[in-house]
Design brief:
Length: 171
């Protein structure tokens, strides 16, 4: 049985088996949570990302996919990188956002990770409205079968924290 927990804080401080990164398709780092993870995790993460670009993901990690690396110096064993869709008002990309959570949980199962911290994928630079992002995140994680015992959403802002609280209250 999976517990969903909410934390208002910094995902790089979470002691969990796996930390999910809202990466971009290049896997070469970026701003937001991605930048924070690479800064705090150190160069070992980028080294593995470079190797992934040189092998399985020569064209980059596609949107909706997930792949694991070491967590370097973070207090976790793995980072699971997933690429969220850029929000579009003209096109419904919800299933791609849901896929990020499903695929991250699938990778977590492959690793044997039992506690997983998630950020609000796509809800920063990629522009997804936070209430909708929270509804998709909570709904998908709750409806995806996995061996994970704790899915911890780590929200960086008060707005995001409150949006996840209401999404959780609504299920
Ligand atoms: P995306 O490009 O997928 O939108 P961002 O990193 O820009 O990714 O934003 C995703 C979410 O992560 C946003 O809600 C942002 O506020 C949040 N965020 C940024 N830094 C951190 C952090 N250190 N820990 C947790 N969440 C973070």
């Amino acid at each position: 049985m999976m517990d969903i927990t909410l934390v208002w804080g910094d995902i790089t401080e979470q002691q969990v088996d796996a930390i999910v990164n809202a990466a971009n398709s290049s896997l070469m780092g970026g701003g937001g949570v991605d930048g924070a993870i690479h800064r705090r995790g150190g160069p070992a993460i980028l080294d593995e990302c470079r190797k992934l670009r040189a092998s399985r993901f020569g064209g980059g990690l596609p949107t909706g996919y997930a792949v694991a690396t070491t967590a370097g110096e973070l207090p976790a064993r793995w980072v699971i990188h997933t690429v969220g869709p850029v929000y579009s008002a003209a096109e419904d990309r919800s299933d791609l956002l849901a896929s990020c959570y499903r695929e991250s949980l699938r990778v977590a199962d492959e690793l044997g990770a039992r506690t997983v911290a998630f950020p609000a994928v796509s809800a920063g630079v990629y522009g997804w409205p936070i209430h909708d992002a929270a509804r998709i995140a909570v709904g998908t994680v709750l409806s995806t079968p996995s061996q994970v015992v704790e899915a911890r959403f780590v929200l960086f802002t008060e707005d995001a924290y409150r949006a996840f609280q209401s999404a959780l209250a609504a299920v």
